[in-house]
């Protein structure tokens, strides 16, 4: 049986305002997260202290804008206790994401065991596309 610990960060990411176009790491045009609000998020650990230890961020993001979005991207950056970046992972949803729709997400740290045990905190960055 898996033992799960849930660590809650006190910081809440909430972004609102107008869309501004930006270019992502692949040169694709996306927009700033003006129409997206992260409504909840938690760092979870499965099997802590073992070779199977796994770390992920669970959360929910909502379309708070006035238009239907076709793409929502959440970037999670994982840090160790000293604040050094360990990994950056991207999760996305595509389709008609209408106003008020909440999309649950899970972003898994890509390593297990000792590497996963190094994760202390994380940051989330939403982006949208119309």
Structure write-up:
The protein is mostly beta strands and 130 residues long. The chain has a single domain, classed as Sandwich (Immunoglobulin-like). 3% of the residues lie in helices and 55% in strands. It is built from one helix and nine strands. It starts with a strand and ends with a strand. The N terminus is likely disordered.
What is the compact description of this entry?
The protein has 130 residues and is mainly beta. 3% of the residues lie in helices and 55% in strands. The protein has one domain: Sandwich (Immunoglobulin-like).
Summarize model confidence as the mean pLDDT. Answer: 79
Distance between the termini: 42 Å
CATH class: Mainly Beta
The fraction of residues in strands falls at over 45%
- Number-wise, the strands total 9
Task: Give the SSE order as H and E letters.
Answer: EEEEEEEEHE
Order of adjacent strands in the largest pleated sheet: 1-4-5-8
Helix run count: 1
Uncertain parts = 1-22
- How many domains? 1
> Main β-sheet: number of strands, strand sense, barrel status?
4 strands, antiparallel
* Overall 3D shape: elongated
Radius of gyration: 15 Å
Record the SSE blueprint:
Layout lengths: L3 E4 L13 E3 L5 E3 L4 E11 L7 E10 L5 E11 L5 E13 L4 E7 L5 H4 L3 E9 L1
Antiparallel strand pairs: 1-4, 2-3, 4-5, 5-8, 6-7, 6-9
Labels describing this entry:
130 residues, mainly beta, Immunoglobulin-like, four-stranded antiparallel beta sheet, three-stranded antiparallel beta sheet, 1 helix, 9 strands
């Amino acid at each position: 049986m898996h033992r799960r610990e849930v660590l809650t960060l006190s910081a809440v990411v909430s972004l609102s305002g107008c869309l501004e176009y930006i270019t992502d790491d692949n040169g694709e045009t996306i927009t700033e997260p003006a129409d997206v609000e992260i409504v909840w998020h938690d760092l979870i650990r499965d099997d802590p202290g073992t070779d199977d230890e796994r770390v992920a961020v669970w959360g929910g993001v909502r379309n708070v804008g006035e238009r239907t979005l076709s793409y929502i991207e959440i970037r999670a950056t994982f840090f160790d206790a000293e604040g050094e970046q360990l990994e950056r992972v991207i999760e996305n949803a595509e389709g008609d994401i209408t106003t008020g729709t909440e999309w649950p997400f899970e972003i898994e740290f890509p390593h297990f065991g000792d590497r996963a045990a190094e994760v202390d905190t994380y940051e989330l960055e939403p982006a949208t596309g119309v």
